[in-house]
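Inputs:
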Amino acid sequence: MASCTTIYSISTTPTKTNWGFHQSIHRHESHVFFYSSTRRTKRFNGFSEISCSAEEAKTVVIGLAADSGCGKSTFMRRLTSVFGGTAEPPKGGNPDSNTLISDTTTVICLDDYHSLDRTGRKEKGVTALDPRANDFDLMYEQVKKLKEGITVEKPIYNHVTGLLDPPEVIQPPKILVIEGLHPMYDPRVRDLLDFSIYLDISNDVKFAWKIQRDMAERGHSLESIKASIEARKPDFDAYIDPQKQYADAVIEVLPTQLIPGDNEGKILRVRLIMKEGVKYFNPVYLFDEGSTISWIPCGRKLSCSYPGIKFSYGPDTYFSNEVSVLEMDGQFDRLDELIYVESHLSNISTKFYGEVTQQMLKHAEFPGSNNGTGLFQTIVGLKIRDLYEQILSSKASATLQASKV
Amino acid sequence: MASCTTIYSISTTPTKTNWGFHQSIHRHESHVFFYSSTRRTKRFNGFSEISCSAEEAKTVVIGLAADSGCGKSTFMRRLTSVFGGTAEPPKGGNPDSNTLISDTTTVICLDDYHSLDRTGRKEKGVTALDPRANDFDLMYEQVKKLKEGITVEKPIYNHVTGLLDPPEVIQPPKILVIEGLHPMYDPRVRDLLDFSIYLDISNDVKFAWKIQRDMAERGHSLESIKASIEARKPDFDAYIDPQKQYADAVIEVLPTQLIPGDNEGKILRVRLIMKEGVKYFNPVYLFDEGSTISWIPCGRKLSCSYPGIKFSYGPDTYFSNEVSVLEMDGQFDRLDELIYVESHLSNISTKFYGEVTQQMLKHAEFPGSNNGTGLFQTIVGLKIRDLYEQILSSKASATLQASKV
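Outputs:
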């Protein structure tokens, strides 16, 4: 283990600031400059607890992009659950904070980088999807700082009031997840991501889900739902959708093909599109890596109710990138189906037999627990844990090498 | 090992007989009655060498049905090759004998049980496919005798002259294969079979093959080929085709589905239909026993030329029987494709890694070596070897149990 030499300076913490102009805040932040003997530089600002360990990894940053209301929060709960512990808002902070913190993982919502509040957007006639309503400079600088181990004061966009609230302190976690509309939009932010995921919900399914949520649960009319989707579409197509080309993994949610002509959005066909050649990420496969497979597990060993379950797997290209695609169409009836399916998947990065099934059972009440959305979200969670551990271990061995010099 | 008590009587061997009336021949045959201490009765006629071993199995009988010119002889050469050694006609016998003998296996052609020669059939207006042109009583009694370990004098149908030649001596082999038009037609013969196979060539492929052989190689006209197929069809449908319902394994040969509209018969889709619940026979499977799979092995690890290769596997019913079906569409380009495919098949009863590939390579010049016909014939050969060895070992252990009493 490397010993640490501490050379530091502390300046004053910034006081009350106009939170409408985040861009300038970080310029006033104060830092602890911290040099280790292994020539690795770590910085902490005044909020940080200073700790020193040569093996300590810098924060691993994961980006999760999706339209609002596309199951990101469920995904996040599944992801943090994989790491153990529960994710909660920062203690004693703003009750409307969008942040979730667990032992290893901090999830920040990129809506917090809105540069225009609800009124401001209305005045300027831009949606929240428009880059002009978002502060990418601040997003970049704060994500960069967190990645370098530096605590930041992140603004809060209050979804209840539509206003920008005073900032909250975010300490660098082991894993930082930035989730929202634009994690891969700005090339600088994109470059900070160790892994990126895009949740791609097809229009048919999005519509079915909105009807379910906004009409059945919130009493909106079908027309208003249609109008709201239509209104978002141009900006969505211009600014959100193109990000999927940069994602390391895309979870595509489509209507089933098991029932001809079905677009009810109840039975789903979910595709996990995994980029090849991503460091620390080995795509999941079914039976035979790199070949093209379809698999109907229902048969002599497994009985499924109509319309059954069909898996597909194979190589493909996606935005000129070589990818592997795993697809699940249909839904599970019972637990034994899930463990049966799990046992036939390879490279799922479980730590014990049945871990996927255990995770899915643990959150059986989450939306999508009986279909490919829940399954693939859980698997992506395991892959991220694996990626994190690989990065950690590669850093540890690099540090060990350096300490021997 | 059990000791043997020998009580025997020898009568005279039948002399010159009118071979037009085989039915009566066996009634004149002489026998050695041979009782072992394990209460198992063995009989040998005067031609047999008498040997005594309690472990010795009675002959295992395999039936192979197919229309003439459907690749039975290739299948037989593949099968005998699996057991090692080469199959040759009986030494010093009729040069037009249809029999092939190897160390373990004797293949007899059921055409030898024609009761009417070519002239006789013409006179009576029946084809060779008609049961009235065949002597099922004699077929039954001789197969039964061979199964019981008794040497027989089997007639010979001379394909060159179209006449019935004097009989040849057939000693009970370890494995007797009866191949021809009617191995499963007569219920008594059918009951003697330890395993049965039906080669089912679709009309399109049969036609393409006949054109290849009879037109290109023998100078027949397209019209005469069509006429000959049409002429055989009613009897084929009435007497040959229905046997496939009794087969333990059916090899179905169809035109490819990889090239839409193709019926050239050059690229084949071959299906191995395997009955479930057959003693000593565990159907081959792909990846996951009992589920439904399609597999295109061409991809990152394997490059295939157009139109590629597609495997399918799954449960099905065939004439009300539960079956598993393994299908191969397309053809192999190179050896590494074959070993790759072999390594993904289960229950193929090989004795070492790559045995299927080795067998296929050994007979690379045989028709069908690059497609499913050769592959499935080889696999069925291995399954028969496995079945034979299981029967042998179950007999040995039964004998051991009996000797302990």
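Remarks. The first strand of chain B starts at residue 4 and ends at 5. The two ends of chain B are 12 Å apart (CA to CA).
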